[in-house]
């Protein structure tokens, strides 16, 4: 599926004979073989002697008042060991990752379909499920608020009100106008992160009255603090141990699972295990914010942008979660990676009774990209220009201002990226005499007919921030130990599949010249490293590992340097050997260590950021990353079926740390974007989630995934980032849906204002 | 001590012949027969169904293959989609092979069976319109012996399966005639049909038979459109039709399957479905005559 012609030089290290080593090489992941063989342990594989099984009772209604909960029958069932409800939460009743507005168990109100109400521990999973079903809950069913536009005027769904955040952004002159004006209304659906492994966990009570949670957490310390507060325990009596993570697109774990699990373990004194069904997984975890966007672009006669006006409405679902962050990104990047002198945006995140929304990579930025790129296509059509040309006339560069008033100080090679995808060769048209062997929309031996298929080419430029924004304290701590020719990294940064473990090994190999590097599993006994999101671990945790490794290096070389009367900088380490610049000194690491152990711990904390002020202004972001995608699609214009033939990607990566891993991240992100563009939308009419299964919620298969062609990776180092590297995973997700929509627009001439693109939106109606 | 008594093992029988299976069903009237389990086990896992007992059909070798019988193919109900998708089968009944290939991802096709597709009778069952267009019949094995009935009688509920009966074989007349199956899914990978069309051009009986799947609870046969287009074909000549005739046929089929409601404007979704059916029928006829 992948075609890479931008990174040949780096991937060739394998062919050169020596095993890949250090930064910039394709060091393979240690757990790749175990994962391929199915022996890698995930939370669902865990076992403890005498464990009980948990089941969670969830609300069948999106909005209802609870008038009575009776657990008598359930508790009396043979095999049932504990039943817990809101009355059994010893600590804080409310929790939340950013705002504590979500109850552990619904007590008086349920606010979304699937909200946890009670949990059961029993000696068999079926017994637990039957007991959960036997809990009597009386509801007074209320009218759900499911249209975010109606949330403003609706009765408050929560004591905190229905408006979670409002950001007005005012930049430039409100009265500015352009000769050309285009308007559009865009909608983005509800994408589910659909991790390949559903939520699971094991809670084990400790003799000291504490509890250990074995879960696939992506932010163990935050999960620990949240759990400790709910259990009414000091933080050090709760330990979160990170198990294998079976796929994470954002905040992986559903606290609606971890908290009941811990409560049940504390209550029964037994280990308790929970494995969510796929349906529970869809109901429990956070989704991408469904968004409504209204845009007006003003441009001059040459196609240069004058003003962008936008209204952005995010459906946050029942609880705040990461909506504030998503809204900040949506508002800040509302105009995209373009220079616009005047920008006026109103953004709102509102509460509804829809399934909860939260952090799914590229949140906020992905939705606005679909809209502003739709506007750029409209502008091109109105001006009679090529879509790529209009974009080229407006691209952002280093030194330009974002609409938030922040100056872009990092590399922003947007024009170079666009040029790379525009100039790349187009994929060939299907050929061969046997038309039945052509892969047309609808698949092989499908309904596609060459005469009804139109090819379209579309462009999109996307941007997203790296690290948490608006004053989040982004810090990570890592420890490096060297003993006996082997190095060990201790860092609570979770490898969710993004490859942090491999990167940490590469860094230590590079700095210390030690080949054998082990990265220990993460838990909360280690110092915090923060969430695995927004490319944080490449930056802050990678940075912390590098600093700690350098400190160890100094400890190792200092005595040698002193002995030989030269500075540490004149010594180098490679292949376990230490040599001086002049070759006079040559010894080994093991000999120098002489049985000693060297330890160092270091932190990495990037420069602080500001919260957006009342005009949406402020230096809110530490770093930015950019991407250009050219999509080539085939559309059957009678049936509306779409096949993405190829996505050409050019990306701003700062520095390539691991070419193979980098390519895999881009391919994965682009494929997720294709899902968003064509098929993924968790439907919830009247607040009830429809068909929460992997049959009902289609994900891209190998046949749907396009050829991903990485045409250019721009390596302009970001001087403030460790190694100058930028995070790579999120920006392809942000950009590729908009590119697919643009290509379908080009193929059909239809406006395509909604994601995912439904077949009826890609049909060209015959002239009446 | 666990409250859970592992009853499953005792309540699953694995007969090795049809007669044993029928006897097992007679002995346990509450038992549910299971073949590939792609629909049944999903319902069990979702907690929607708790069969008291299961009769597994996987070891009955006589229903896992096919044979010839008097100008017809006698297909075992236990034939998997994967088996039906192979070239040797495709040479025999091409439309059914195409339907089987599009029935889902490989894991589903390896397990799911022809009989299961009929027994589940989902509106989107891919084999069903093909069987309807081929005028297949089903052979049910029961305690009182076998009986054979047209597939349409079974699917529409005119002549439902009786207690203790088991779907054993499907009889399909071998036509040596062009046949096609087309399915619209909106995506490139395997997916549920938005609409599907199976079409057979049968020179022996001078008939065109067309069946539309997924738009109604059972496959629909637009009989008038079939007769109209059969009347246009020069059966003794080169059997071609003008593009306009194919287009008109498509619209005829679509209007028959998604009829106008008197006094009501059809919603956009229904109009779109009608356009889809029209395009599929037109293409199916065009390909069958090509």
TrEMBL record, chain A:
An annotated Gene Ontology molecular function: oxidoreductase activity
Residue ranges of every copy of the Aldehyde oxidase/xanthine dehydrogenase a/b hammerhead domain listed in the record: 37-143
Pfam families in UniProt: Ald_Xan_dh_C (PF01315), MoCoBD_1 (PF02738), MoCoBD_2 (PF20256)
Domain of life: Bacteria
Matches recorded under InterPro entries: Ald_Oxase/Xan_DH_a/b, Ald_Oxase/Xan_DH_a/b_sf, Ald_Oxase/xanthine_DH-like, AldOxase/xan_DH_MoCoBD1, AldOxase/xan_DH_MoCoBD2, AldOxase/xan_DH_Mopterin-bd_sf
Protein name, entry field: Xanthine dehydrogenase, molybdenum binding subunit apoprotein
Species for this entry: Actinacidiphila rubida
Lineage summary: Bacteria, Bacillati, Actinomycetota, Actinomycetes, Kitasatosporales
Automatic annotation (TrEMBL), chain B:
Native source species: Actinacidiphila rubida
Pfam family of the protein (one): FAD_binding_5
PANTHER family in the cross-refs: XANTHINE DEHYDROGENASE SUBUNIT C-RELATED
Keywords: FAD, Flavoprotein, Oxidoreductase
Cited InterPro entries: CO_DH_flav_C_dom_sf, Diverse_Substr_Oxidored, FAD-bd_PCMH, FAD-bd_PCMH-like_sf, FAD-bd_PCMH_sub1, FAD-bd_PCMH_sub2, Mopterin_DH_FAD-bd
All residue ranges annotated as the FAD-binding PCMH-type domain in the record: 4-204
GO molecular function: FAD binding; oxidoreductase activity
Taxonomic path: Bacteria, Bacillati, Actinomycetota, Actinomycetes, Kitasatosporales
Top-level taxonomic group: Bacteria
Protein name per Swiss-Prot or TrEMBL: CO or xanthine dehydrogenase, FAD-binding subunit
PROSITE patterns: FAD_PCMH (PS51387)
Gene3D superfamilies given in the database record: 3.30.465.10, CO dehydrogenase flavoprotein, C-terminal domain, Uridine Diphospho-n-acetylenolpyruvylglucosamine Reductase, domain 2
């Amino acid at each position: 599926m992948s075609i890479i012609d931008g990174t040949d030089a780096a991937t060739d290290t394998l062919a050169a004979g020596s095993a890949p080593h250090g930064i910039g090489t394709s060091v393979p992941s240690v757990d790749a073989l175990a994962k391929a063989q199915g022996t890698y342990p995930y939370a669902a594989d865990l076992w403890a002697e005498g464990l009980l099984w948990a089941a969670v009772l969830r609300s069948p209604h999106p909005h209802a008042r609870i008038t009575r909960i009776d657990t008598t029958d359930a508790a009396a069932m043979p095999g049932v060991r504990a039943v817990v409800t809101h009355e059994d939460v010893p600590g804080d009743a409310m929790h939340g990752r950013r705002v504590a507005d979500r109850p552990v168990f619904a007590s008086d109100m349920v606010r979304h379909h699937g909200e946890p109400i009670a949990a059961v521990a029993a000696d068999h999973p079926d017994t637990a499920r039957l007991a959960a079903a036997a809990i009597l809950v009386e509801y007074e069913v209320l009218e759900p608020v499911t249209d975010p536009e109606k949330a403003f005027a609706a009765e408050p769904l929560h004591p905190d009100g229905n408006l979670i955040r409002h950001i007005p952004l005012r930049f430039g002159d409100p009265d500015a106008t352009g000769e050309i004006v285009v308007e559009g209304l865009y909608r983005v659906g509800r994408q589910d992160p659909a991790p390949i492994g559903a939520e699971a966990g094991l809670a084990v009570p400790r003799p000291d009255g504490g509890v250990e949670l074995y879960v696939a957490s992506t932010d163990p310390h935050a999960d620990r603090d949240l759990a400790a507060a709910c259990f009414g325990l000091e933080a050090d009596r709760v330990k979160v141990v990170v198990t294998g993570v079976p796929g994470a697109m954002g905040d992986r774990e559903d606290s609606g699972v971890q908290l009941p699990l811990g409560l049940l373990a504390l209550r029964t004194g037994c280990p308790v295990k929970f494995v969510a069904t796929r349906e529970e997984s869809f109901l429990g975890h956070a989704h991408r914010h469904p968004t409504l966007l209204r845009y007006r672009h003003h441009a001059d006669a040459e196609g240069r942008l004058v003003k962008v006006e936008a209204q952005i409405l995010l459906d946050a679902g029942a609880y705040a979660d990461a909506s504030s962050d998503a809204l900040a990104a949506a508002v800040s990047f509302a105009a995209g990676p373009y220079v616009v002198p005047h920008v006026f945006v109103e953004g709102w995140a509102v509460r509804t009774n829809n399934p909860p929304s939260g952090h799914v990579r590229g949140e906020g930025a992905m939705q606005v990209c679909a809209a502003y790129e739709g506007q750029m296509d409209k502008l091109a059509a109105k001006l009679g220009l090529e879509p790529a040309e209009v974009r080229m006339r407006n691209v952002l560069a280093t030194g330009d201002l974002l609409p938030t008033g922040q100056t872009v100080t990092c590399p922003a090679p947007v024009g170079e990226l666009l040029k790379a995808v525009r100039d790349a060769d187009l994929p060939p048209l299907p050929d061969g005499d046997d038309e039945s062997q052509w892969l047309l929309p609808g698949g092989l031996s499908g309904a596609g007919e060459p005469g009804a298929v139109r090819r379209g080419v579309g462009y999109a430029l996307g941007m997203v921030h790296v690290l948490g924004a608006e004053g989040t304290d982004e810090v990570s701590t890592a420890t490096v130990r060297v003993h006996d020719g082997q190095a060990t990294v201790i860092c609570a940064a979770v490898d969710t599949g993004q490859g942090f473990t491999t990167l940490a090994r590469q860094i230590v190999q590079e700095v210390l010249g030690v080949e054998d590097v082990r990265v220990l599993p993460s838990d909360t006994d280690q110092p915090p490293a923060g969430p695995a999101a927004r490319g944080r671990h490449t930056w802050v945790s990678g940075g912390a590992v590098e600093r700690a490794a350098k400190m160890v290096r100094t400890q190792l070389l200092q005595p040698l340097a002193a002995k030989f009367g030269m500075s540490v900088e004149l010594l180098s380490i490679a292949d376990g050997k230490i040599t001086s610049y002049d070759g006079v000194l040559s010894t080994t690491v093991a000999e120098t260590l002489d049985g000693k152990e060297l330890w160092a711990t270091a932190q990495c904390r990037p420069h602080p950021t500001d919260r957006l002020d009342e005009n949406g202004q402020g230096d809110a972001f530490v770093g930015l990353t950019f991407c250009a995608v050219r999509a080539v699609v085939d559309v059957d214009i009678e049936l509306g079926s779409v096949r993405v033939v190829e996505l050409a990607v050019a990306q701003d990566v700062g520095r390539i740390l691991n070419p193979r891993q980098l390519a895999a991240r881009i391919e994965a992100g682009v494929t997720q974007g294709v899902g968003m563009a064509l098929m993924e939308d968790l439907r919830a009419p009247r607040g009830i989630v429809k068909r929460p299964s992997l049959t009902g919620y289609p994900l891209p298969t190998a046949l749907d995934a396009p050829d991903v062609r990485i045409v250019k990776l721009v390596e302009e180092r970001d001087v403030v980032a460790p190694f100058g590297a930028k995070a790579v995973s999120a920006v392809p997700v942000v950009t590729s849906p908009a590119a697919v929509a643009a290509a379908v627009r080009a193929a059909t001439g239809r406006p395509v204002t909604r994601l995912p693109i439904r077949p009826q939106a890609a049909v060209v109606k015959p002239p009446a | 001590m666990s409250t859970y008594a592992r009853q499953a093992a005792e309540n699953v029988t694995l007969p090795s012949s049809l007669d044993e299976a029928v006897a097992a069903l007679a002995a346990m009237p509450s038992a549910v027969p299971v073949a590939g389990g792609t629909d049944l086990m999903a319902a069990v896992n979702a907690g929607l169904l708790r069969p008291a007992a299961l009769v597994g059909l996987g070891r009955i070798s006589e229903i896992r293959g096919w044979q010839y019988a008097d100008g017809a193919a006698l297909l075992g109900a236990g034939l998997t989609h994967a088996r039906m998708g192979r070239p040797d089968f495709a040479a025999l009944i091409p439309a059914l092979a195409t339907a089987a290939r599009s029935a889902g991802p490989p894991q589903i096709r390896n397990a799911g069976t022809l009989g299961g597709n009929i027994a589940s009778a989902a509106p989107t069952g891919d084999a069903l319109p093909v069987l309807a267009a081929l005028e297949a019949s089903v052979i049910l094995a029961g305690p009182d012996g076998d009986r054979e009935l047209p597939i349409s009688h079974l699917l529409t509920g005119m002549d439902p399966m009786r207690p203790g009966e088991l779907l054993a074989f499907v009889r399909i007349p071998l036509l040596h005639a062009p046949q096609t199956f087309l399915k619209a899914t909106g995506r490139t990978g395997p997916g549920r049909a938005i609409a599907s069309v199976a079409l057979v051009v049968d020179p022996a009986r001078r008939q065109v038979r067309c069946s539309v799947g997924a738009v109604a609870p059972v496959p629909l046969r637009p009989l008038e459109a079939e007769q109209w287009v059969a009347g246009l074909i020069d059966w003794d000549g080169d059997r071609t039709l003008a593009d306009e005739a194919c287009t008109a046929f498509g619209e005829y089929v679509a209007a028959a399957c998604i009829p106008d409601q008197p006094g009501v404007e059809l919603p956009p979704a229904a109009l779109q479905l009608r356009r889809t059916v029209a395009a599929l029928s037109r293409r199916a006829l065009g390909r069958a005559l090509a």
